[in-house]
UniProtKB/TrEMBL annotation:
<dbReference type="Pfam" id="PF00383">
    <property type="entry name" value="dCMP_cyt_deam_1"/>
</dbReference>
<comment type="similarity">
    <text>In the N-terminal section; belongs to the cytidine and deoxycytidylate deaminase family.</text>
</comment>
<dbReference type="InterPro" id="IPR011549">
    <property type="entry name" value="RibD_C"/>
</dbReference>
<dbReference type="InterPro" id="IPR050765">
    <property type="entry name" value="Riboflavin_Biosynth_HTPR"/>
</dbReference>
<dbReference type="InterPro" id="IPR004794">
    <property type="entry name" value="Eubact_RibD"/>
</dbReference>
<dbReference type="InterPro" id="IPR016193">
    <property type="entry name" value="Cytidine_deaminase-like"/>
</dbReference>
<keyword id="KW-0560">Oxidoreductase</keyword>
<comment type="pathway">
    <text>Cofactor biosynthesis; riboflavin biosynthesis; 5-amino-6-(D-ribitylamino)uracil from GTP: step 2/4.</text>
</comment>
<keyword id="KW-0479">Metal-binding</keyword>
<comment type="function">
    <text>Converts 2,5-diamino-6-(ribosylamino)-4(3h)-pyrimidinone 5'-phosphate into 5-amino-6-(ribosylamino)-2,4(1h,3h)-pyrimidinedione 5'-phosphate.</text>
</comment>
<dbReference type="GO" id="GO:0008703">
    <property type="term" value="F:5-amino-6-(5-phosphoribosylamino)uracil reductase activity"/>
</dbReference>
<comment type="pathway">
    <text>Cofactor biosynthesis; riboflavin biosynthesis; 5-amino-6-(D-ribitylamino)uracil from GTP: step 3/4.</text>
</comment>
<keyword id="KW-0862">Zinc</keyword>
<dbReference type="InterPro" id="IPR002125">
    <property type="entry name" value="CMP_dCMP_dom"/>
</dbReference>
<dbReference type="InterPro" id="IPR024072">
    <property type="entry name" value="DHFR-like_dom_sf"/>
</dbReference>
<keyword id="KW-0686">Riboflavin biosynthesis</keyword>
<dbReference type="Pfam" id="PF01872">
    <property type="entry name" value="RibD_C"/>
</dbReference>
Amino acid sequence: MNTNSKHNHEYWMQEALSLAEKGKGAVSPNPMVGCVIVSENGEKVGEGFHKKFGEAHAEVHAVQSIKDRDTLKNATVYVTLEPCSHQGKTPPCAQMLAKLPIQTVVVAMQDPNPSVNGKGILHLRNNGIEVEVGVLKKKAEKLNEFFIHHQTFGRPFITLKVAQTSDGYIAAADGESQWITGKESRRMVHQWRAEYDAVLVGRTTAMVDNPSLTVRHVSGRQPRRIVIDGPYELPKELNLFSDKFEEKTTILTWNKEASATDADPMLKVMKQNYFRGEVIQLSKVDGHVDLRQAFKVLGEKGITSVLVEGGQQLSSALVRQGMVDKLELFIAPKLLGAGTRSFINIGINKMKEIAELKDSTWTKVGNDILLTGYF
Ligand code: AOF
Ligand code: ZN
């Protein structure tokens, strides 16, 4: 068997990608990484993936899983991300691999992290190891779209999630919106909450829906909950502030009176109500919290992804300012006839200004359909 054929490379890289995915929800802000080691005669002899933030990298687990060290001779290592070259929380993987009697390292994509970014590949090549880059690159990039975005732009990847009726309404005339979609779609959203670093809502949604934004119906870790409250006036009794829930709720405000200390009387009351919050003071632009600054600060705090769950005003502002990366739009086979129309108002009046999503796909979820697309 020709162990280096394109077909084999893709086969083993797919295994490594499937392994990487097992780290979903547990490794952020670091990437999901998987690694498979294939011996000279074409057998898989080792595998591993990055399991938890701050712990051993995928390559280390894969090498540790090898039973017979002799099988490493002239072996091929498949890894979904360029092996690291820096001393971080763990020693550099490229250096570790370069000391093994392996022949080839096949990498799906270069690491966008500035402390690696090609240096891992260079180190392997300088030590006589063949390196092939780009096998299943698109899939690897998709898997780590949050990590790549955060490393490249320093701010989180932003997804806008919307549920609407088939006639385009996001709420009834009386403002009620629970529930437009079916339970399968709602379960999917809870799964996403467990996978995104943070969930964000605007002030009106917090007031009208009083959401908890917690993960239910599925198991998984809780995301950070973020609410924009420019004037810093939301009632302290809202679920976001008062539920006995350990995950922090972050309030983004322009109000200069707000502060993160006990000198802030509102925060003091909220803390008595079990609030484990954080207040981030930002600039005011056109009467609203400076969203660009908000995401920069969140990025600096290690938040790589944000799921925006409403409402219309916040969503429109984000789309207008070009900050939304992905749209997840659920469309239910239901009609509301009159109500709040269109999940965003982005001021497009002419056909020639029409906005078209990229890489769009349609998926059936229960009785709803889900449109996924990129801005
Ligand atoms: C991971 N897991 O399997 C690989 C990573 O903070 P450290 O020391 O864990 O290093 C994190 C960086 O290492 C990460 O941003 C990425 O550039 C590189 N590769 N990271 O957490 C892994 N292979
Ligand atoms: Zn590493």
